[in-house]
């Protein structure tokens, strides 16, 4: 088993610098850039990295994280999404995901725009997402998930202290939740 743990901005692997029309430079930091491939990585912990805006650069290498089973993100206050659409087809093994205490996180699985490569939905083996302490979280899954990604192995979903949450599941995802045994929602904004 290969595990990667990062707990400060100094261990970042990639960054991208852009220059706006008025010549003001800004940095968009990604933990993993297009040059990084960790084909045997099974566990990834990203903790206390306030300078990253995304975990994966949008040009990540194909098959760069095929064995990733567990992803934990904690205290990354500039992070807006955990799993972007371009990475979903590459994640073949994710079983658990934990996202907590990320002040800017708005969506965990950003699925739009996602076009399955072979015309078939992507089946993620995710079993246990735990989401907590995300004040700006609006939804765990984008609203267009129903025809693109299947979550048939979900067994336990826990969501706590997400006051901005407006939707947990898009309505059409319920047909895939045949193995769901535990659903726990506490102190969330769902009305």
Automatic annotation (TrEMBL):
Where does the source fall among the domains of life?
Eukaryota
Q: Name one Pfam family in it.
A: LRR_RPS2
The organism of origin for this protein = Rhodamnia argentea
Domain Disease resistance protein At4g27190-like leucine-rich repeats: start-end pairs: 41-189
- Provide the alphabetized UniProt keywords: Plant defense
Q: Which SUPFAM superfamilies match?
A: RNI-like
The coding gene here is: LOC115726481
Protein name as it appears in the record: Uncharacterized protein LOC115726481
